[in-house]
Specification:
The protein is of the alpha+beta class. Helix content is about 50%, strand content about 15%. The chain has ten helices and six strands, in the order αββααααβααβαββαα. The strands form two sheets. Strands 4-3-6-5 form a four-stranded antiparallel beta sheet. Strands 1-2 form a two-stranded antiparallel sheet. Helix 2 packs across helix 3 and helix 5 crosses helix 9. The longest helix is centred in the C-terminal third of the chain and has 26 residues.
């Protein structure tokens, strides 16, 4: 499947890379007055990152510190009303400060396990900064467009079929329906009357548009073999029963527009740049893994990237 159709998240770039429609509500009031343009929101006052928000045991906590806390703890505060999030972040930051101070007082910061964890967290944070500043921020719009064009050029055209079907339990029932169609009966009317597919009982058996592989193999093969306007002369059996299929139309599926998939294209560029950077850095790094089996497994993982 094309990378353009793979979903990714910028939020997962850090460690994940290291390890490898808006709907409009209907207007309910029939005689409501025309909506008035909303007054423009007042411009937010610039925030001084060095402004002191709180002082804890003589140590200042600034707007920059609070902003960092809000960002790092945003998931915990997601369910809170917006007006409470700032206060919740400040409360959490104060709690962290006083607990951290007590940990230092009791010597927990000297514990070897803690120091190893701190060293790893620092390296992980630096890794994230390198991804953000050395990879993500350097991706250009031209590179994203080029990746989209490349994916489109490398994706073979896909044919689609618009079909209807009538699903019944036995071949005898399907044969009887085909006999009626041969006599001029209306396919949609027969579908509404006879199909056991719940979604087809009010739609004339309409399945909409689908591409290769979206239906069970027997159905797929029969539908794509039919000419437009034709129905199957013999019933088609699948795991669901016996089908009488009619093809309404065929078309070549159009690729998605650039604006629809540009975020996925950007993710693909970021991924490739990230792995290229890692490959370059690993090539110049001296890495020794004494355990031969572990080294073999690591090498296999690296070669798969």
């Amino acid at each position: 499947m094309s990378l353009l159709f793979r979903r990714a998240s910028l939020a997962s770039l850090g460690l994940a890379f290291g390890l490898s429609a808006l709907s409009l509500s209907p207007l309910m009031a029939q005689e409501a007055a025309p909506a008035q343009p909303a007054a423009p929101a007042p411009a937010a006052k610039p925030v001084d990152p060095n402004a002191v928000v709180a002082t804890i045991n003589g140590q200042t906590l600034t707007e920059a510190d609070l902003g960092l806390a809000e960002g790092e703890l945003s998931q915990q505060f997601a369910q809170l009303p917006p007006e409470q999030r700032r206060a919740a972040a400040l409360s959490a930051a104060i709690e962290i400060r006083v607990m951290a101070a007590q940990a230092v007082t009791t010597g927990l910061d000297k514990d070897p396990d803690f120091q190893r964890r701190m060293a790893f967290l620092q390296q992980r944070a630096l890794h994230g900064e390198m991804v953000e500043k050395g990879v993500v921020d350097k991706v250009t719009d031209a590179e994203v467009r080029a990746r989209y064009d490349q994916e489109i050029a490398n994706t073979p055209p896909t044919n689609e079929v618009h079909a209807r079907h009538i699903l019944v339990k036995t071949k005898e029932e399907a044969d009887a329906i085909i006999k009626q169609l041969d006599g001029g009966a209306d396919f949609q009317k027969l579908a509404n009357e006879h199909t056991s597919d719940p979604s087809g009982k009010t739609s004339g058996g309409d399945l909409g548009w689908f591409g290769p592989g979206q239906m069970v193999p027997e159905f797929d093969k029969a539908a794509f073999a039919l000419a437009v306007g034709k129905y199957t002369e013999q019933p088609v059996q699948s795991q669901f029963g016996w089908h009488v299929i009619k093809v309404e139309d065929k078309r070549t599926k159009q690729p998605p527009a650039f604006d629809e998939v540009k975020d996925q294209a950007r993710q693909a560029v970021i991924r490739d740049k990230y792995f290229a950077l890692v490959k370059s850095l690993r090539a110049n790094a001296k890495v020794d893994i004494p355990d031969a089996n572990l080294k073999k497994t690591v090498d296999a993982l690296e070669s798969a990237k």
